[in-house]
Write a structure and sequence with these properties.
By secondary structure, the protein is an alpha/beta fold. It contains five helices and nine strands; from the N terminus they run H-E-H-E-H-E-E-E-H-E-E-E-E-H. The structure holds guanosine-5'-monophosphate. Guanosine-5'-monophosphate binds next to strand 5, helix 4 and strand 8.
Amino acid sequence: MVGQGVAQRQMMEDLETVLYTEEQILTRIRELGEQLTVEYRGKVPLLVGVLKGAVMFLSDLVKRMSIPLEIDFIAISSYGLSTQSSGVVRILKDLDRDVDGRHVLIVEDIVDSGLTLAYLRDVLARRHAASVRIAALFDKPGRRQVPIRPDYCGFTVPNAFIVGYGLDYAERYRNLPCAGILKEDVYRSSESAHT
Ligand code: 5GP
């Protein structure tokens, strides 16, 4: 227990700013869950979580949706520098379920350039989903390269690199219960160490 406290404190020290506390995130997710419950009433939506960043958002969101629903996961890679997406997208783990005729809700951690979601939305439309909508916990509209907007959004965030609450840097920080901006020197120093 003591060890966990120390690890968490170290991660917190790597944050420049805490943007949203766990309590603020859960309050917003409760609102989104209530909204989605109303909008998908009478349907059995298939929620598609984009691995790995959306795992926490998805698990907290579905607990606040009081309608029958199903869950699936997809893993997508986008190549490029670790703190920037390159736009080259590829499916690493595909869905287990057939989406033909299903009302699909893509659940994503953060929309940045929008390239990942534009690709995924097209893939699902080509597989004849009845509808495809997007729920994103965070949105960085200032970085968009393609015109895509989440239908449901938790928070609009500034053009900075966010970690915590599922979002990682080099697989770390996902287990921070809050979300914040990572100090630039944390990734600058490790990027230069790897070049
Ligand atoms: P996009 O294709 O919209 O540029 O990028 C989407 C993906 O890039 C997200 O699912 C996430 O994995 C990653 N990403 C974009 N911005 C951030 C950020 O600020 N922090 C973290 N940790 N990942 C990000």
